[in-house]
Specification:
83 residues, mainly alpha, Arc Repressor Mutant, subunit A, 4 helices, 73% helix, transcription, Anti-sigma-K factor RskA N-terminal domain-containing protein, Anti_sigma_zinc_sf, transcription regulation
Length: 83
């Protein structure tokens, strides 16, 4: 895989794919090269796995007051205000 294809795989893993990228992914997956297709799918999965691990390691609990503010905003039918 070339650098652009690796970047594309990472974009897919992040879920931030636009129409142009979607077209490039579709071309890659529909292409004649099964090795390239397999490498691309492995790269996407490895990136997803890395992002999942990172999220697990860096996750923090939200502030306790956040739940109360959200519930109050829902009850009042007003959008919550970020603080």
């Amino acid at each position: 895989m070339n650098e652009a294809q690796i970047d594309l795989a990472h974009t897919v893993a992040l879920g931030s794919i636009d129409d142009e990228d979607h077209h490039a992914v579709q071309e890659l997956l529909d292409g004649e090269d099964p090795v390239l297709r397999a490498e691309f799918l492995v790269e996407v999965q490895q990136a997803k796995d890395a992002l999942t691990a990172l999220a697990a390691v860096t996750a923090t609990a939200p502030p306790a007051a956040l739940r109360a503010r959200l519930l109050a905003a829902i009850a009042a039918e007003q959008p919550p205000v970020a603080s």
